[in-house]
Design brief:
Distance between the termini: 114 Å
Number of helices: 23
Number of domains: 2
CATH class of the largest domain: Alpha Beta
CATH superfamily of the largest domain: DD-peptidase/beta-lactamase superfamily
Strand content: 15-25%
CATH architecture of the largest domain: 3-Layer(aba) Sandwich
Length: 588
């Protein structure tokens, strides 16, 4: 009994000491029982075009918050907010219920990015809205909506796998990071460094004081090689169509325009996109998220004749003067291959064959070369492999060889496949950016450059992180006399009376180019002779045109692809003409 009384006395004395003697001390400690770290988001760096026009920046986002403890009549408050703006009352009710059971003094967000009108109405009635507060945070903003969206890319919430990768050290769950394009490529520098506050809070979550503060560091600004006005014209030219346009400076590989259609508005992804909208985007047969300029792989059609011509001259399988007769049909075994011109071109040498795009001529030349020699020169000229334009997900296309087919399909290469390959059909696949590179190589002296979209990157304070410099891949190994011959022929494609690219002709500037009409499916002769509008859209030919100007001192190279557009000379050449005219600022 004595032992129990002693223990009890000790407990009573201890309680008396804690509650009476030290009560005030522990009361203060309990009220200041936690130090909380609060993030301060940095401003993401701006993105500019080559002339300094702002394409992407940040704007203030006004977020609606409420402190649950200060709300006495919740239903009245929510009803009042619903009349002042577009508020999801059910969602707000759930948020407030959860908050009231946890930290009632901690502000909770009812709606992000309220409109200016909503903000004005709420601020006007602030005294009638107890517990309501507005917080401002930076939000990404694409000034021109979908303009250059495939080059710029979009932001999306960071994934757990990205966080675990260790490549996103300045990010945390819930952050928006670059998913594609420039936003993806320069994510680390655009992101900036988050700041923070060390604040003292009580048990209810009320902030007592700010102990320390570290200001955030804004992300680096990025200037692109893209010309905003040229980009806008390219996208306008593709409006209502499926296709892609790439314009580059043939002297250094700087990308002047990169358009893909259909497109999308990156602003959609800044706010939390609902599941239905996301499913509509990703399941659309138009594939708006696909960057067709880099990931679209298409048969090049007659544009590939540039490769065949250079390969044939280099290998000596034909002389420029040799003529081959074209009567409209080429026979191989029991198979017949047609020329696009029903009754043929008659006798044609290499120049005329390129100018008028004679298929029969190139069937014969392709047969003399063989598929493996064709593949060697196509690869040398940059086809069948990625160009290195680092905007994520670039595809390399396909240049077939006899060994490739045997490995892939387990059957030998057939002579008829060489015939089709000679005019850019069969298994041949290229991307629009590769086609822009191809025409550039022919006219810049045989030099190959890696395309680039970044002009410079500068940190806050002006420190240069990156400055554009041409990335040369060296010469492609084609004799200058052969390049000169093909150049002359490509000038004729646009400027000679029977040239297939005459709709790209300009008075003040010499334009050179090559048309291409790539079959999507093989159609019987009777079907193909029908009017284009009578053929289902998905079975119509793709239209190609590659162009460069001025031919003597090239400043712009353009590749235009219109999916299911029909003939390259009528569907794609006029688009290239308008782009060249606008960029060089010359009359028609």
């Amino acid at each position: 009994m004595l032992f129990v009384l002693v223990i009890f006395a000790i407990l009573v004395l201890r309680l008396w000491f804690l509650q009476i003697v030290s009560g005030s001390t522990y009361r203060i400690k309990s009220e200041h029982n936690r130090i909380r770290l609060q993030d301060i988001s940095p401003f993401r760096g701006m993105i500019l075009d080559r002339n300094g026009s702002v394409l992407v920046d940040n704007r203030p986002s006004y977020d609606l918050y409420v402190i649950p403890e200060e709300v006495q009549h919740r239903s009245q408050l929510l009803k009042r907010l619903s009349t002042l703006g577009d508020l999801d009352s059910e969602y707000a009710e759930r948020v407030l219920d959860k908050a009231a059971r946890g930290y009632p003094f901690k502000p909770v967000c009812l709606k992000r990015d309220i409109s200016r009108d909503e903000l004005a109405r709420i601020e006007t009635h602030r005294f009638d809205l107890p517990g309501i507060m507005i917080k401002v945070r930076p939000q990404r903003y694409y000034f021109y909506g979908g303009l250059a969206s495939h080059a710029l890319g979009y932001l999306g919430e960071i994934s757990e796998s990205q966080l675990m990768s260790g490549q996103f050290r300045d990010n945390k769950l819930g952050d928006l990071v670059g998913k594609t394009g420039v936003e993806w490529k320069w994510q680390a520098l655009l992101n900036g460094v988050r700041g923070g506050e060390q604040v003292e809070v009580d048990a209810e979550g009320r902030i007592i004081e700010v102990i320390s503060r570290r200001a955030p560091v804004s992300g680096a600004n990025i200037c692109l090689t893209i010309d905003k006005d040229l980009q806008a014209l390219a996208e306008k030219s593709l409006l209502g169509k499926h296709g892609a346009i790439v314009a580059i400076d043939p002297g250094n590989g700087a990308v002047l325009a990169l358009a893909s259609s259909p497109s999308y508005d990156p602003n959609l992804f800044i706010k939390k996109i609902d599941e239905k909208t996301w499913q509509n985007i990703v399941s659309s047969n138009d594939f708006p998220l696909q960057n067709r300029a880099l990931t679209g792989q298409y048969p090049p059609g007659s544009v590939f004749k540039i490769v065949i011509a250079l390969a044939a001259l280099e290998e000596g399988v034909i002389t420029p003067e040799e003529e081959i007769f074209c009567n409209g049909t080429f026979s191989l075994g029991n198979q017949s291959y047609r020329c696009w011109k029903k009754y043929g071109h008659g006798k044609a040498n290499l120049n005329r064959a390129l100018v008028e795009s004679c298929d029969i001529y190139f069937y014969n030349v392709g047969r003399r070369l063989g598929v493996d020699k064709i593949a060697r020169y196509a690869t040398r000229l940059g086809l069948g492999k990625k160009t290195g334009l680092d905007l994520s997900q670039e595809k390399g296309g396909l240049i077939p060889t006899s060994e490739w087919k045997l490995r892939r399909w387990g059957v030998p290469w057939q002579a008829g496949e060489t015939v089709s390959t000679s005019i850019g059909q069969s298994f041949v696949l290229v991307t629009p950016v590769q086609m822009a590179n191809l025409i550039s190589v022919v006219f810049n002296g045989g030099r190959s450059f890696t395309p680039q979209v970044t002009k410079w990157v500068r940190k806050t304070g002006g420190e240069n992180v990156f400055e554009f410099a041409p990335q040369s891949n060296g010469k492609v190994g084609i004799k200058q006399e052969h390049l000169d011959f093909v150049k002359k022929a490509l000038i004729g494609v646009v400027n000679q009376p029977r040239g297939t690219g005459s709709k790209a002709k300009l008075k003040e500037v010499t334009v050179a180019g090559k048309t291409g009409t790539a079959q999507v499916v093989a159609l019987p002769a009777g079907e193909r002779s029908k009017q284009e509008t009578a053929i289902p859209w998905k079975f119509r030919d793709h239209a190609w045109f590659v162009a460069i100007a001025p031919a003597d001192t090239p400043k712009i190279a353009v590749a235009v692809l219109v999916e299911h557009g029909g003939h390259g000379g009528s569907a794609a050449a006029p688009i290239a003409k308008e782009l060249i005219k606008a960029y060089l600022d010359v009359p028609s």
